[in-house]
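During the second year of the project, the team shifted from modelling isolated chains to modelling whole assemblies. The rationale, set out in the original proposal, was that interfaces cannot be judged from single-chain predictions alone. As a representative example for this report, we include one of the complexes processed in the last quarter. Its constituent sequences, exactly as entered into the pipeline, are reproduced here:
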Amino acid sequence: MSDALLKIEHLTRYFDVSKPWLNRVLEREEKQFLTAVADVSFEIKRGETFALVGESGSGKSTIAKMVVGLLGASEGTIEFDGHRMTGTAGAEMRDLRRRFQMIFQDPFASLNPRWRVGDIIAEPIHTFGLLKGADVTNRVGELLDTVGLSAKDAEKFPHEFSGGQRQRIAIARALSSKPEFIVCDEPTSALDVSVQAQILNLMKDLQDEMGLTYLFISHDLSVVRHMANRIGVLYLGRLVEVADGKRLFTDPQHPYTRMLLDAVPDLALSGRRRKPVEGEIPNPINPPPGCAFHPRCPLAMPRCKVEAPHRVDTATGYAACFALETQPA
Amino acid sequence: MTEPLLSVRNLRVEFPTRRGILTAIDDVSFDIMPGEVLGVVGESGAGKSLTGAAIIGLLEPPGRIAGGEILLKGQRIDNLDAEAMRKIRGKRIGMVFQDPLTSLNPLYTVAQQLIETIRTHADISEAEARTRAVALLDRVGIPAAARRIDDYPHHFSGGMRQRVVIALALCAEPELVIADEPTTALDVSVQSQIIDLIKEICAERGAAVMLITHDMGVIAETADRVAVLYAGRLAEIGPVREVITAAEHPYTAGLMGSIPTLTQDNARLVQIPGAMPRLNAIPQGCAFNPRCERAFDRCFKDRPDPIDRGDGRKVACWLYDAAVAAGKEKVNV
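Output from the structure prediction step:
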């Protein structure tokens, strides 16, 4: 597909969690690695919202950080608009960096408390040398206006704003370098629902106006359903299923996706009987062999314990599960 | 009608500060029947947790109960001295807090903490208490309870720790359990396990539950009745099904519309403009009036009291006042 803006192939990230050298020698222990992201591949098309969902420790944020270059990849490639990000440096990388931005989860930690809001928003403009002098102030005013604050707020400090307003400031900062692609790492999970609705609506409006592409990361399935065109489900750093937004909810393929959907509290009071969820996410340092989900899986077979499943194509994406291979389609 | 297990009457909690008195809970009343699950929802700062803390006598100074009364089976508990309150806390009212890591002592094993609590409230030997503790851990779904009871809290995962906390809250067989955001720190798949557990165990023991949460989904799955708090005031209270499917207070209606669901398709979420007022800037009249689309003259002058709507529903909104309903007062909707 030629219209892919972001293309990720076989992305893997290990973290070295070994004890210090002396302890390893004395206690005769091997080096230990935690695999946060294992062989993840997906594409994001221009103008769409691709969401990654998963529970804590599934590698959502690690992928986000690798995509914007805050973390290096151990293996695999990230391609942004045809440019490989690994190996690119200097002026070319600088130009690429302008084109993607990030919105973080905690609006209390992501804004410098000693900077005025105007300076915070103007920083990317100065960094990339986009505008000079009075134009910067005007642009900051415009941006504040776009996100539903007033141009006068540029003089204030972050502590004068509520959580939702701070997240608006973070969005204005992300927009200031005129990016095409924004990575949103749990942008609303620190907010109350009524404020969350305001921010989600704002993000959708901005996408419509500016043709933005989002990588949207969240643990909240209902938020993801509301925002995303396509969804990837992560489990222990592995992408277990990718499907179109609505399809994932009406016709989940992977047993983990089904379990996750079953676990969401039911606001509609349909009185459906939930299947009880079993077990918890295992330790990522020693993940189960074969398919990482097999100890909790209702469909597990002997094969799942030894072999890692491959992708099986489904109606709108794919899922990695042996049970789907054997089932007649 | 049976006597309510817990009755909160016109509760008022204040925080004196240098710049004047802040009223964090203002004239809140509700009952909890024996065996009932009452959900308490609201956004951050609405006074949910403070209500729980006031009931159990754990308000942090300078916060104080400035008015109203709290009755447990007809006996006033809001004016008890510290010693008498300690006998009720844990014994008759159990508590489950949000963060299972901070509500367990990291320096004691789970066995030590459970046995201490059991022996504080029941006059039994250590061996008996231990047997009871193992049975409890087993009941809350901790595998190999007899072996794991001697582990420290950090040996347990988040979900397992919350199970230990639930065991701790239940070990004196309380009549009421106050669960303050018991699943907020947990992942969804673990959250559903914990909700099911709380529901099951309380039903089994006939304990009533006051479930404090910001998550309407959790309330929908668990509670019998729900109380919606806004800026320290009761906005609406009633049976869960009615409140969720046909909210009457404009705030509850907005709140329900702002939650994305797994079944409905909306291009845009309903949004309530603005944010909840700070405690030092609660407007005159109804606290919700600056954000309310249906506010009219009276909302800016007088504060609405909860109006009885039948079937145990109460709504604090002038739209449901008799004079308005009869069309005597003009409302621009």
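The first strand of chain A starts at residue 4 and ends at 16. The radius of gyration of chain A is 21 Å.
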